[in-house]
Each structure stands twice: as C-alpha cells, then as structure tokens.
Amino acid sequence: MSDSENCLFCKIAAGAIPSRKVYEDDELFAFHDIHPAAPVHFLLIPKAHIPSLAQAGPEQAGLLGRMMVLAPRLAIEQGCNPYPEGGFRTLINTGAEGGQEVHHLHAHVMGGPRPWLKG
Ligand code: 5GP
Ligand code: ZN
After folding, report:
1. How far is Cα 56 from Cα 48, in angstroms, rounded to an integer?
2. Cβ(99) – ligand 1 distance below 6 Å
3. CA proximity to 87, closest of 61, 110, 119
4. Residue among 8, 93, 102, 118 to mutate when testing ligand 1 (max atoms within 8 A of CB)
5. pTM for this one?
6. In Å, how far are 11, 45, 101 from 51, measured between CA atoms?
7. What is the homologous superfamily of the domain 3-111 according to CATH?
8. Is there a contact between 118 and 37 (Cβ–Cβ < 8 Å)?
9. Where do the structural domains in the chain lie, given as residue ranges?
C-alpha cells in the first residue's frame, strides 16, 4: 500500500505507465483521470511517494501549498470556467473510509458545466 516500487501513480509520474499529462515540474505531476467524473477531471500529485495526506507532516507543508496554488491555474488551463460562476472542486480522499483507492497522495481537480457524474 505504501510501497513506491509497486505504486501506480509513481509509475505514471515516472512515465513508466502512460497518462494524459496536464503538467509537470521537479516536484509535481498532473494527469487526466482515466474515469472522469466531470467535464474537466485531473489528478495533481507530488512526484515523491507519500501514501496519503495522513502521512504528510510539517516538512510537506511547502509541497502541499504548491499543489493548492497550482490547482486553480491548471483548472483554468484545462477549461474550467472562471470563479465565481465557474470554479472547480478540489478533493483529497484519505484512507479506506475516506474513499481513497490509490495510495499515493493525490488531489482531484474537477470542473466544467454541470451536471457531473458524481456530486
Ligand atoms: P481515489 O479514489 O484514490 O481518490 O482516486 C483514484 C483515481 O485514480 C480514480 O478517480 C481513478 O479513476 C483514477 N485512476 C485509477 N487508475 C488510473 C490510471 O491507471 N490512470 C489514470 N489516469 N487514472 C487512474
Ligand atoms: Zn507512489
């Protein structure tokens, strides 16, 4: 579950498994969700293998901050309409009861005209 060797999103960030890339820098990677729940639906991840938000400590504060600051820029670039009439949803599922299926920290960014499949 927390093994980076067998982690799907580590492999996607490394390019070992193909994805539709949205963004990449030294620390972060973003790619379209394979089962989009909204017209725009991508995942924003740290390249470092952090299993979930439950494992993020003070040393990850800068990284998490950069993820949050990047989300609105990428949302607009991917076609979300501007705030306040448009906007987007950011969602981080943590653990089984939090609905987390892939155990590499990721923020969902969803947007576009309603209705959406979920929510
Ligand atoms: P979670 O439920 O862990 O918050 O979300 C995992 C997300 O990863 C799901 O929305 C699912 O559709 C997406 N996903 C799972 N496997 C793949 C894959 O191989 N490629 C891509 N692009 N997305 C995936
Ligand atoms: Zn990983």
Report:
1. 11
2. yes
3. 110
4. 102
5. 0.97
6. 14, 11, 11
7. HIT-like (3.30.428.10)
8. yes
9. 3-111
For residue 3, the CA-to-ligand 2 centroid distance in Å is: 7
15-50-93-80 Cα dihedral, nearest 10 degrees = -50
Q: 110 with 87: CB under 8 angstroms?
A: no
For 25, the token pair is 């820098």
Return phi, psi of residue 108, to 5°: -75, 135
pLDDT (0 to 100) of residue 3? 83
Q: In the predicted model, what is the mean pLDDT of the chain?
A: 96
Six token digits for residue 74: 């990428």
Catalytic residue annotation: 106
Q: Which residues of 24-33 are buried (b: 16+ CB within 10 A; e: fewer)?
A: eeeebbbbeb
Q: Which atom of ligand 1 is nearest to the CA of 99?
A: 2
Q: Which residues of the chain have pLDDT under 50?
A: none
CA angle at 12 for the pair 104 and 53, rounded to the nearest 5°: 15
Question: Residue type at 97?
Answer: E
The DSSP bridge partners found for residue 65 are: none
Q: Which ligand is nearest to the CA of 12?
A: 1
